[in-house]
Amino acid sequence: MARESRSVARQLFVWQLAAIVVLVALGGTLALINERHDSDAATRRQVVAIAVSLASTPSTTAAIESPDPTALLQPVTEQIRKANDVDFIVVMAPDRTRFTHTTVDLIGKPFTGNIDRALAGETFTETYVGSLGPSIRSVTPVYDGDRVVGLVSAGLTREKITDRFVSGLPVFLGALAGALALAVVASGALSRRLRRQTLGMAPDELRRMYEHNDAVLHSIGEGLIVWDSDDRADVVNDEARRLLNLADGPVKRSDLPESLQQKDSAGMHLTDTRILVVDEVPVMWQGRQLGTVMTIRDHTELQRVTGELDSMTTFAESLRSQAHESANRLHTVITMVELGRAEEAVEFATAELELSQHLIDRLMNTVTEPAVAALLLGKISQAAEQGVELTVTEDTALGSTGSDPRELVTLAGNLIDNAIDASKASDQPWVEVTVRERDSHLVVQVADSGPGMNPDALGAARARGFSTKSGSRGLGLALVSQVVARHGGTLTAENSYGSVVTATIPLVGAKQ
């Protein structure tokens, strides 16, 4: 409760409520003053209308000039007074003598108040303390031709005006109270909404949380994007902008690379220069999904090292296999010697040795990059274990290029792995590999006995996560395509003497 009393929503509600009460009180006071002024103005219009109407009636002129004006005018004026709810109507002679009055005892006595302006032909109103107390009255002349023969005054006392005003106050105050209640309810609803949005925290708590979160978001080594329900980014940290090459300013999901534009895009993604592992989870609050949080990790270097390690592992497996085969051959040679067939033993041993040594010598002499040479030797043994005949063409040759060996291993290794898997679809699987320099370019050409790919299939294979085979190496051609794109090279596929995939990249360090 202590935190809630200090929350932004509570403070805003208290200040807003105080402002509303002050504004309503001030507005109500001004409205009351204006209403009182309007009430006086309406009274003036009413008494003027009554006096002028009575004065302009021919019977009034005739009655004034008759022998007994009171007898003719008193019943009429009283009827008019009661019908219009005014306090008095006085018809008088120019010398102020009253012919009519609400109080009968005052008839015949002089009228108290100003009549000079009426005698001059003007109709006017005034506030005057007369026989019935303070009142708003009007005075107007009665003409017989051009001659003023009398005056008519109609008035309403301040007491009755106040009674009328007070009788209308309940409605006015009720409307004022309704407006105040509506404003309080609206403020309460706004306060509850703000409390939900600020999680009921106080201003200093919000400030500390913002400072801490901002510091953490910009210092962590992973990319972080917080999406709202409309796929607009509420938070994008510096690492996310770097990994995804996002410009400063607002970010929408459509600004991301194509493979990340779909919701729930968790998994591995490739951009032109990076290999990214992406995870996306929903953000829930009180059973409602507010949006999602996307985390992005850079696995580019890890993937390259993993590819090189796979190549070395393959080479080690090849050596293990060859050691096993060598042991079998050695036992065979020993047995043949024991059987007295020494010449056949020598012929058997040297034939296998010459074949293996010839391949090793050729690759080590023509391929000066040890990682590539080891990769090719390892893939030959790996393919043989899977029943695939893999040959390295005689024109394979690669000098010192200055290129990153890891990229060369990624390029050649993934193309060979894909070819080995694809060739198994044929009855006699084979793979043929050529690695050479041509016109200052590195050319890696891998042919196989598989069904091959048309240009559309190649384009799909180069996309993130596509795989033409079952298993876990769906990123093979995508990784190859990334290396090719990074160096501004080309990647083509054709079906000629087999399925042929050719990757070509420029070599800056190649000899001219």
TrEMBL record:
The catalysed reaction is: ATP + protein L-histidine = ADP + protein N-phospho-L-histidine
Bilayer topology reads: Multi-pass membrane protein
Q: What is this protein called?
A: histidine kinase
Question: GO MF terms on file?
Answer: ATP binding; phosphorelay sensor kinase activity
Protein EC? 2.7.13.3
Gene Ontology CC annotations of this record: plasma membrane
| InterPro entries, per the entry | HATPase_C_sf, HATPase_dom, His_kinase_dom, sCache_3, Sensor-like_sf, Sig_transdc_His_kin-like_C
